[in-house]
Every structure is written in C-alpha cells, then in structure tokens.
Design brief:
19% strand
Length: 318
C-alpha cells in the first residue's frame, strides 16, 4: 500500500466515519505543489463526485484527475482522488467542521448551465433554513447516464444525512430520474421537476441532426429527443414529487415548432408526469423559469409542506 493510502485510511479512522470506497480509476499522481487560487471557470469540463459543507471534489471529464474546491471556487488540492480526500480530511479537522445535518436539498441544473444558474432558488432555500447541495456536472459533454452516476456519487458522499430532497431543472430532471432509477436510495424525500421534458423535448428532436446542435449540446442534447431520447424509458421519482411547467397560457405557446402550449423549449404536456402529487404552470419562458419568484416560492413550499401552493387544493397529474 502506498504512503498516501495509509495516510488517507488513518485520517478516516481519526474522524470516526468510514467514507465511500475510492474510485478505481484514480490516477496515480505524485504529491503536487498547490497554491490555493480561484478557478478560471471551465464548468463544462468538471463533475462533482463528493460534497461536504460546500467543499467539493470534482473530476475532470478529459484528463480524469481531481481537484478540491471550497464554496468560493478556490482550489485547495489537485491530483488523485486520494490526495483531494486527504486534504479535505485535514481541513475538516483544522476548521472543526461538524457532521452533515440530517436533511439536505440537492439542486440539479439543466443543460449548458451550472449550479450558479439556480442562485435565486439556492438563496431562498438557505434562508428558509435548508442545507443546499448545488450539484455540478458537464452537461454538454456526457450522456445522461454518466451524469446520473456522478450525482449518485455525490448522494453517497452525504454521510449521516437521513433525508435527501431534490430539485431539478430541465435536463437535470432526467439526470435525477436516471440516478434514482439506476441507484435506488431509501433516503430520498420530496422531488420537484421544473421545466423537465419528462416525455422528451419536441424541439430537441427538430434540431437533433444539425451539426451545431450536436457540437454545442453534446450527447445529452441528442437524448432530449421525444422520439429517440431517454425520457420515455425512465421511471418516475420515488416518493412524493411535483412538476412545474412554463407556459404562455395560449393554445400555441411561444414556439410554433412545439405542439400545444410551451415555454419556448418544453411543452406543458411533456413537463407533466403521471404520478405527481401536485403541479403548477408558471407563465414565463424556459430560460427564466427556474429563478422566477413564483417557481422559487412553490418549490420552497412543496419541500416544506408537500404542496406547491400555501392555500388551495393540490393539482395532481393522473
């Protein structure tokens, strides 16, 4: 066993909480000189695989190496997974970071976006006293299944957490559904799917063969098709879940290429998913839906009460 392996194992014993097994593909990297510094972006090249009080370990899509970031996107370590975990264990001791709370909310962003695109929702949920885990993945570089596996790795890392709620936007809803189908987790509580093409996206099917679309949106973009994609094969989320759709509230919607009412990208019909205990239509376009004040309020209300509205009867999808 390498010295780093021994150090890592010893640090786990000191913390008293055995953590998930190390990925087998952790590249053997010598001890690296690291100067803490702000990252330069590149969010479409990295996927979160571990989370602890805002600290994240990410894996690079191209090189397979890892980095450790704090909540301000400052890098504190890089190299192998073991090196990043060892440094995080040291930081946990140095800063006397407590165990994770019993309940958290995980946010899953849409395609061509990052967790920062859900900032208003994150702030609202935090203000309501919830611990928010903002998950990042390279949405334009990996298929839905790979993103789902990364989300599973993050959920596994939430040790000591007894209940996990999920809020997913657009493609993030398919990633979430794929994750929960591939990796069942008894801790899953309530789930909200916002603007998710739960039956596939008609507009993505129209654009799927254009080269610019393939290059820009990657394999997941192809999987959004309502005829050729993954949506129709996925099971609904376990437990209580709700759906929120954007719309124009007219028979033809915003986009003439999408049948029926729509939010310019996803039809209301596709956003609705049978089994939802509540549903809501917000009059806005797709890109603004996740941070619309009505969406944010409804999500917060559902996570706390099981209803999207503080008053009135729920509107289930049957």
């Amino acid at each position: 066993m390498r010295v780093l392996d021994l150090v890592w194992a010893a640090s786990l014993l000191l913390l008293g909480n055995p953590l998930p097994a190390l990925p087998e593909d952790s590249p053997p990297v010598p001890q690296n000189l690291n100067i803490p510094m702000k990252t330069l972006g590149g969010r479409q090249f990295w996927s979160d695989v571990y989370w602890f009080h805002g600290w994240r370990i990410q894996k690079n899509f191209y090189t397979g190496h890892y980095r450790l970031l704090d909540d301000s996107d400052v890098r504190h370590a890089w190299g192998s997974y073991i090196q990043c975990r060892t440094r995080l264990n040291d930081i946990r001791v140095e800063q006397k970071l407590p165990d994770l709370p019993k309940e958290v909310v995980v946010l899953v962003h849409g395609i061509f976006r990052s967790s920062k695109s859900m900032h208003r929702l994150r702030e609202e949920l935090a203000a309501a006293g919830m611990t928010v885990v903002a998950f990042d993945y390279p949405s334009t570089r990996v298929p839905v299944e790979d993103a789902a596996d990364s989300l599973h790795a993050v959920l596994q890392s939430l040790e000591g957490v007894e209940k996990i709620h999920l809020v997913a936007f657009s493609l993030g809803g398919l990633v979430t559904r794929s994750c929960l189908e591939r990796h069942p987790d008894e801790r899953i509580g309530r789930t909200v799917l916002v603007g998710t093409p739960n039956s596939g996206a008609e507009f993505a099917h129209v654009l799927r063969d254009f080269r610019w679309f393939k290059v820009t949106f990657g394999p997941a973009g192809q999987q959004l098709s309502h005829r050729l994609g993954v949506a129709g094969t996925l099971a609904p989320p376990p437990g209580e879940f709700a759906v929120i759709a954007g719309a124009r509230n007219t028979p033809k919607g915003y986009n003439p290429l999408i049948p029926g009412d729509d939010d310019s990208t996803v039809s209301v019909k596709s956003a609705r998913l049978k089994g939802a205990v509540d549903s809501l239509i917000v009059p806005t376009i797709h890109s603004l839906l996740i941070n619309d004040r009505r969406t944010v309020g409804a999500v917060s209300c559902f996570l706390q009460t099981g209803r999207l509205r503080p008053e009135g009867d729920p509107e289930p999808v049957e």
